[in-house]
Write a structure and sequence with these properties.
Arginase, Chain A, 9 helices, alpha/beta, binds zinc ion, two-stranded antiparallel ribbon
């Protein structure tokens, strides 16, 4: 095992998906992240992990067959098709979504087989809003849930922790873990914005950390101390991260006040926990983040901290 390397997964097909022209969830997002990883020197620590698209079987471990079929039936041959007000598909969208899930699966294989302790999937479309029966919120299928379901099956794991610091609550991931007690879920989010989730944590394997508008990094990190304790107590064998960087102060879609440093410190704490409970095994996948510069710098800070182990 090379402790100072990380697995890096990205694919050109993920740049071809588009919701509609001018949509904030744009192909440039992952291009800017890769460029920032290059410019900061992080890519010299990257092991480029090859991967293939997730299969129907992988998707159907999580999603309802009818929903998956409806997405396939509605894929446009040209132009765009709207799934809901915010979410669209072009001819490349399903290939991109399957590749994004495939990245998650290959990253899990790599980390479980000790190729590296940590992995970062620079992919899109994002996934954490996609519910079992409903794609929504820029998300078609839920990569992190598909990854968890795969890891449970393939590696006979008993406990996986999903942590989600995207500024929007991962309602799709919540939908999945409600029927999967082997997976725990901690999610911080800005309250009273999309997807307007009830902030109450009403099941044992979930902790919600709602944050007030304009909360800064200090409030965020304070809230997460309870979240990290929850993860520690669950004793996961693998930690999966929904890494959305839209809680950044420059993000146009939300109103929290985090900086790159906050994502760095958050990740540093998670790495410490992972080292104690699961031999450092962390697979992180991109969710939101819509200011291109803030996104690229925040993702770089996140990867930098993933490497400090
Ligand atoms: Zn988000």
């Amino acid at each position: 095992m090379t402790a100072t390397m990380f697995l890096y997964l990205s694919s050109a097909i993920c740049q071809k998906h588009n919701n509609s022209w001018g949509h904030p969830e744009s192909p440039e997002r992952i291009v800017h992240i890769e460029q920032a990883l290059q410019d900061s020197g992080m890519m010299q620590y990257a092991i480029a992990q090859p991967f293939s698209p997730a299969t129907d079987t992988d998707v159907l471990r999580v999603h309802h067959p009818k929903v998956w079929q409806t997405l396939k039936d509605n894929l446009p041959q040209n132009g765009f098709v709207k799934i809901d007000e915010d979410t669209g598909m072009n001819p490349y969208s399903l290939d991109a979504a399957l590749m994004a899930s495939g990245a998650m699966l290959a990253a899990i294989d790599g980390v479980m087989n000790n190729q590296a302790k940590t992995a970062f999937c620079n992919i899109r479309p994002p996934g954490h809003h996609a519910e079992i029966k409903r794609p929504m919120g820029f998300c078609l299928i839920n990569h992190i849930a598909i990854g968890a379901a795969y890891a449970l099956d393939k590696y006979n794991l008993e406990r996986i922790a999903i942590v989600d610091f995207d500024v929007h609550h991962g309602n799709g991931t919540e939908d999945y873990i409600r029927q999967e007690p082997r997976v725990s879920f901690v999610s911080s989010f800005q309250e009273n914005i999309f997807p307007f989730t009830n902030p109450i944590s009403d099941i044992d394997n979930m902790l919600k950390l709602p944050l007030k508008t304009q909360s800064d990094g200090k409030v965020f990190m304070n809230g997460w101390q309870e979240g990290f304790e929850f993860v520690r107590n669950f004793k996961p064998q693998l930690i999966l991260v929904s890494a959305g960087f839209d809680a950044h102060q420059k993000d146009p879609l939300a109103s929290l006040n985090l900086t790159e440093d906050d994502f760095y410190h958050w990740t540093q704490q998670l790495v410490e926990i992972a080292d104690n409970v699961c031999e450092g095994k962390i697979v992180s996948t991109l969710e939101g983040g819509y200011d291109l510069e803030a996104l690229a710098n925040s993702a770089t800070a996140h990867v930098k901290a993933l490497l400090k182990q």
